[in-house]
Amino acid sequence: MDILTCTAHHPLRDGSVDLLGAVSAVTGAMTRVNCGGARFLVDAGRPQGADARHWRFPDRAMEIDALVLTHGHNDHVGSLPEMLARGFRKPIFGTRPTLDLAALVVADGMRLSGADPRDIDETLRQLRALFHAVDYDAPAQGIPQFAGTFALREAGHILGSASVEFRSAESRVICSGDLGRPGTPLLRDPNRAWASDAPADVVVLESTYGDSDHGHVTAELADRLQDVVLRALKDGGHILVPAFAIGRTQTLLYLFNELVESGRIPRIPVAVDSPMGLEVTELHQAHRELFDAPALAKLAAHDNPLDFKNLYAVRRTADSFRIHEVRESMLVIAGSGMCTGGRIVNHLKALLPRPETCVLFVGYQADGTPGRRIQDAARTHATVQLDGADVPVRAAVETLPGMSAHADRSELRAWLSAIPRVQRVALHHGEPGAQRALAEFLQR
Ligand SMILES: [Zn+2]
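# zinc ion complex -> structure
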């Protein structure tokens, strides 16, 4: 088995696999797979943060017969508006939730960049006309020139996420997409049942956490969350949880449902203060058939795992501001996850100076983000710049690791080991250091 890092071109007997994005970076995934007489693009990502600086949309990404989306995160679908603007009119395949999420994420991105509402509607109309929803493990139809099959397999990363498997008479290619952690209660585990009748010529594998093990199991999360909430309640202030709208917000709701309904924490009001977070939660409710066994068991017992008494949806901005006036303790889930914008910023400005407030981080805070600055400032009781204002950090700041939506290196290895006779692994979607570390780890 050859394991290649930071390498774009991988030949096949009847074509090639070419990484057009995320070759040596985490964001901007875009992989071209040519085999069986057809040309596919897997994901239409857009680099974010520092990766975006010198980026230009690759022309070769337009020379395709179909686009396949692995999941609805912005760094996998963010180039859709640009492709449409360049005249792309080929079919776009994905699971139903992935296509729905892609539409939400594209609209949100256009809104944030100040697009005219009519342009957003037109983009969504064009996208919906191209969308082809495919079920997991069902061969996708609709590419006449393709002498082969392709299918989507569960990836367990977010709702609807998939790996893509292409088979032609001469080649077999598997693109992992982003892989989730096995053992989470809401989402099913990544697929481990691969057909053993043919070798896998190329596996394109994500490597976001290729250099680390998360070091704890998801089952411990509820215990840790309970500790933090009970401690914060003693102080009597609000608990602010900055969280991404897709995935993280729903995982939190699942855990709170469990803690509240089993009586492990008191029934304090919990507010989802994020229009996007609410829409994505509704999408989860509409696709309960995709939930994992523990969540399905709750449904069978007439307990909606994402809903409980005292859970409030905050839709209007005016209502969001009124949260500061509530006297009793409240738990507020709001975006964005790294405090770079969104409603969480107003809450932080108002409540960080109060020592009774608790800020609970449930995700990695990247260097240079307000979230990281708050974590740093909390240690020295310093101030933090938010929206141009100097805000003193008197609140308690807690971090709950382990809620990652990405597999760690041991979980990546376990996923790969289930695929028969892998000839070549093309690592992507990871920093160069993480890719090299993962290659070494897999070779060991
Ligand atoms: Zn993702």
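# post-check
The chain has a mean pLDDT of 94.
The two ends are 12 Å apart (CA to CA).
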